[in-house]
Amino acid sequence: MKTVEREMARKLRREEGRSVKELAALLGVSRSSISLWVRDIELTAEQYEALRGRMGARIDGSRANALIARERRRQAQAGGRARARRSELLHAIGCMLFWAEGSRGRNAVEFVNSDPEMIRLFVNFLRSCYAVPDTKIAVTCNLFADHEARQRDIEDFWLRLVRLPRSRLRKSSVNRYSKYSQKKRRNKLPYGTCRIRVCDTALLQNLYGAIQEYGGFEREEWLH
Q1: 139 by DSSP, 3-state: which?
Q2: Distance (Å, rounded) from C-alpha 162 to C-alpha 116?
Q3: CA separation for the pair 220, 215 (Å, rounded)
Q4: What is the CA radius of gyration of the chain?
């Protein structure tokens, strides 16, 4: 670790209210490293005003709203980091499943897989660790041509697996085989794939924070 640069970054952030961008340029260090080093140092109102003047920025209503939303995402990630430090096995498993198989969105948690037990475990994780209610969980089935005759049975299979009513099912999609892959792909996935979706920005950012804490890294773009 660049100890000298780290201490200088913290000093300049605390005493002069320097931005991450400014510190990165001054010290020749990546923005992600600077962000990690100074994330616990909050700027005062006066420092924010001084920073705004230095950067020549005019913060209008939309810009202010963007900053507020970013701060909320940052706080949600901080909550996820704190949760990860509690060392709960199911929480760690669920976060690693999402890291491996989840989408990288901004406002919703999406997890897709063909393995029924993986889907069941992920939904259990959402319910047990985050108390996600059934009314927020949406299920979508992705089927193949040879599934059409038993589409209803397959949909009911996934719904029973995650203990959700049919009202939480979204319209299934059906992928057609090309003439080249038709014989090769038939019956490869007996139940197609299932997508679990929860629209919740705070939950998504909480997971991002926890994953970074578990993995020991910083990913600035997950805040954008």
Answers
A1: strand
A2: 9
A3: 14
A4: 23
* Count: domains in the chain: 2
Dmax of the chain from CA atoms? 69
Residues of the chain with pLDDT below 70 are: 1-2, 55-65, 67, 177-187
Backbone angles phi, psi at 88, to 5 degrees: -95, 125
| Tokens at 40, concatenated | 């616990």
Is 24 within the bounds of a domain? yes
Chain center to CA of 35:
19
- 135, HSE (Cβ side, Cα atoms, 13 Å): 0
**3-state secondary structure (DSSP) of residue 19:** coil
Q: Could you read off the pLDDT of 51-90 as tens digits, one per residue?
A: 777 765 444 545 556 767 888 898 999 999 999 999 999 9
pTM: 0.70
Question: CA-to-CA distance for 51 and 31, rounded, in angstroms?
Answer: 17
Distances from the Cα of 57 to the Cαs of 42, 50, 60, in angstroms?
20, 11, 9
Q: What's the CA gap between 2 and 165, in Å, rounded?
A: 54
DSSP letter string, 141-169: EEEEGGGGGGHHHHHHHHHHHHT--GGGE
Other CB atoms closer than 10 Å to residue 100's CB: what's the count? 10
Spatial distance between the Cα atoms of 182 and 89, rounded to a whole number of angstroms: 41
Residue 96: inside a domain: no
CB 209 within 8 A of CB 77: yes
Dist. CA 86–CA 159, nearest whole Å = 32
- Residue 80: inside a domain: yes
> Is residue 54 situated within a structural domain?
yes
Same domain, 123 and 159: yes
